Amino acid sequence: MITELGHFALILAFLVSLVQMVVPLIGAHKRWSGWMAVAEPAATAQFMLVGASFAALTYAFVVSDFSLNLVYLNSHSDKPMLYKISGVWGNHEGSMLLWVLILALFGAMAAWFGSNIPPTLRARVLAVQSSVSAAFYAFILFTSNPFDRLAVAPINGQDLNPLLQDPGLAFHPPFLYLGYVGLSICFSFAVAALIEGRVDAAWGRWVRPWTLAAWVFLTIGIALGSWWAYYELGWGGFWFWDPVENASFMPWLFAAALLHSSIVVEKREALKSWTILLAILAFGFSLIGTFIVRSGLLTSVHAFANDPVRGQFILYILLFFTGGALTLFAARANAMEAKGVFGTVSRESALVANNILLAVSSFVVFVGTMWPFVAEMLWDRKLSVGPPFFNMAFTPFMVVLGLLLPVGAMMSWKRGKFDRVLRSLTPAFALAIALMGLVWAMQTGRSLMGPIGVFLGTWLVAGAITDLISRTGQSRDLRRLFRLPRSDWGKAVAHSGFGVTMLGIAGLLAWQQEDIRVAQIGEPFTVGAFELVLNDVRRVQGPNYISTMGDVSVLRDGEEIALLNPEKRNYPVAQMPTTEAAIDYRFLRDIYVVIGDAQANGGWVMRTYIKPLTNWIWAGSILMALGGVLSLSDRRYRIAAGARKTATPVQQGVPAE
Amino acid sequence: MKGIWSTVVACILTLALAFPVQAVQPDEVLDDPALESRARDISAGLRCLVCQNESIDESNASLARDLRLLVRERLVVGDTNEEVVDFIVDRYGEFVLLKPTTGGWNWLLWATGPALFLIALGVGAGYLRRRSPDNLADDRLNADEQKRLEELMQDDARG
Asked: How confident is the model at residue B10 (pLDDT cuts 50, 70, 90)?
């Protein structure tokens, strides 16, 4: 009964979205305020209806209602409650429902917090947003209905893929979707502005918080996924350049570019048409990502739902929205006249450079991801494009970005002075060079990766600190730091996060140590500066798996510093084994232990890695996200809504710095 | 397309049926550390054919193990790295190469980044020049406007 209500609510949401898509658009065109006003309650209603539908599906998973095909395929009564709930989005149909739920949520939020936006623009934004929703409701209802019943309910389910039964992965998709789908609002704003034919500073200010929020969620989602890969896949890689990882990385890069170019729109009323284009591309690449994951076009670890019909449907959605928006862009972009004038050496130019690097690197990832498909279609060549290509073709852009960032971030608007910025950055530069020399001297081997990474990381962090201190003005009164706008702090924190992530990546790639051996129980062995002993191997019964668990002591200078329990699990229902690495997380290095098979002549295969600075990869990601949150909480976004009501509907108003 | 589908099916089968051995096993490791490190370098660039997107160095599949052993066999016989890779490519096709060659149209793939970057730099530089104050004559008054301004000022002065 609840299931049918959920199904019905979803159909109703589809109908509401059709109304919200058409009525406000006509209203905005004819200036009928009554028709425009439909958008707001409709957005709220849509959100409530999809929410109810999602709740109904969650309920079916929680009570293990195996008469639902989806629950039967992806759940089991013995599964822990957390994974019963996360199982709702651990499959194609359910994850699409989560996708439209978030789409409706963002639409509703734009309605709730959009009181300061001129009514025609708001009506258009909500209508465009609703058209995206409508396409996805149709997709779910016609090709991937999560509410399909089975004629005869089986006794028990087939269990969720054990790799997905993990807390890290339980929260990875929701964050990723919040990011992907959050970009839909930027897309709606861009298309609405194109219909409206006007982009001004105020538009930049409205779009920026949404971009920031989407980018923050994407950052967290990608970091969670990468952390999961690190501890779950058994050898401690954090990024594989897998098509699906790339699918989330491309929108992230575009969102980062959009984030920066919308600052230029907001403060200087320049780069307008480019920013509109970026907003379209950012969401376009989210859709491409969805297409890649769900069409089975490219082979990937993540791909679920390899159904050509679904793939085609998403391809049509992708072509309609991206193609339509780009056509509209081609027709209207010329109407957007830039106002700001600035010198070649200026913050504006630095942000243009940022945009070039981010956009081009994202296109490189795109071409690399699609190339195997293109080569097979056009020349019947079956080839692979893997990590070695991306490392060579993508990394240089990030190195250049890292080099330029601290300089660009301190450049003043309109007309900057190169020598002055360079002079104030001299201490940061000297520190970075010194640390680079130090690690160069300390490391064995001649790899340049470590020293370059250390240089860039230090340069970015020290540069961000220099920038913050310079904001206190001539007085150098550090108490003023706490009175700086939060967006200044956000900028510094996010930029240093980028540096910290670079340090982590360089540390891991350059100085990792590895040891593979057959370990006899009770016999100590040495890896780097540590001594390890496999004390015992036990069989442990888990809730829905059987585990082979090792007890490993890690000693340093004869003293035990950690007790690790690497596991090999077997999930009998899903008939799938997983490895659970045991990791001793420390500030400067991780010790990563994996247990393998028992050997015929006694002992167990053991793999031990010492991974320097690895945590920094995710610490940096958290800092980047935190920087975004700080910027988002800046005063000018918080007061904008209230202050705007008293003033006349403002069209521009470059904010005072 | 068909090739991709059969790969997917093969992968699901390997995942479901074979109890995997894990990546590089102790018994595979060569005694000579220099040779072993070369073997690892080569393996990291070769794709596991039955897996989705893993190198044979990372993969648990038994085919990956066979390939790892084959790489080491060739190295022990005295092949150079290139010879080993060529040997594997001859047998399994260029699909095994994680780093695509530059042959055929692949140069386009490799040139994409640098070429796009140069184009973007050109467009960006053009944009910056147009926005720079020296070139924005539009902002200054033209002769007519100047004349009109002077008239207005004079009107004003006359009061």
From this structure: very low
The 3-state DSSP class for residue B129 equals helix
Please tell me the pTM assigned to this model: 0.87
Taking the Cβ of residue A234 and every Cβ of chain B, the question of whether any pair is shorter than 8 Å is answered with: yes
Let me know whether B30 and B74 are in one domain.
yes
Q: Which amino acid is at A214?
A: A
Percent above pLDDT 70 for chain A: 93
Does residue B101 fall inside a structural domain?
Answer: no
Q: Three-class SS of residue A607? A: strand
The pair of structure tokens assigned to B42 is 């080569």
A338 touches chain B (CB under 8 A): yes
Q: DSSP states of B80-116 as a string?
A: -HHHHHHHHHHHH-GGGBSS--STTTHHHHHHHHHHH
Q: Which of B45, B93, B116 sits opposite A363 (nearest CB)?
A: B116
pLDDT at A360 over 90: yes
Number of domains composing chain B? 2
Residue in this structure with the two tokens 């575009």, named with its chain if needed: A254
Q: What is the ipTM of this complex?
A: 0.80
- The C-alpha atoms of residue A172 and residue A226 are separated, in whole angstroms, by 9
Q: What does the block give as tokens for A583? A: 């990791």
CB-based contact A343 B104, cutoff 8 Å: no
A387 Cβ partners below 8 Å, 6+ apart?
A: A240, A241, B44, B55, B98
Rg, Å, chain B Cα set: 32
Question: Which structural domain range is residue B141 located in?
Answer: 106-158
Q: Does residue B120 sit in the same domain as residue B64?
A: no
Taking an 8 Å cut-off on Cβ atoms, the answer to whether A389 and B100 are in contact is yes
Residue A344 CA to residue B134 CA, distance in Å, equals: 10
Q: What is the pLDDT of residue B3?
A: 37
Q: Which two tokens stand for residue A567?
A: 């596991």
Cβ neighbours for A349, distance < 8 A, ≥ 6 positions apart: A342, A343, A411, A416, B128
Torsion of CA A557, A563, A566, A567, to 10 degrees: 150
What's the residue count for chain B? Answer: 159
Among A127-136, A202-211, B10-19, B97-106, name the one with the lowest average pLDDT. Answer: B10-19
Tokens of residue A347, six digits: 């913050």
Dig out the tokens for B28 from the structure: 């595979």
- Contact between A379 and B15 using a beta-carbon 8 Å cutoff: no
Tell whether the model's pLDDT for residue A101 goes beyond 50.
yes
- B15 and B89 both lie in a single domain: yes
How far is A220 from A201, CA to CA, in rounded Å? 29
Same domain, B65 and B111: no
Average pLDDT over residues A136-140: 91
Contact state of A379 with B20 under an 8 Å Cβ cutoff: no
Q: Three-state SS for A597?
A: strand
User: What CATH number has the domain bearing residue B35?
Assistant: 1.10.8.640
State the DSSP H helix or E strand holding residue A175, giving kind and residue range, or none if neither.
helix A167-196
Confidence of residue A297 (pLDDT cuts 50, 70, 90): low
Helices A614-632 and A201-232: crossing angle in degrees, nearest 10, is: 160
The single-letter code of the amino acid at B140 is R
CB A553 within 8 A of CB A563: yes
DSSP code string of A9-76: HHHHHHHHHHHHHHHHHHHHHHT-HHHHTTHHHHHHHHHHHHHHHHHHHHHHHHTT-TTBHHHHHH--
- Evaluate if residue A626 carries a pLDDT over 90: yes
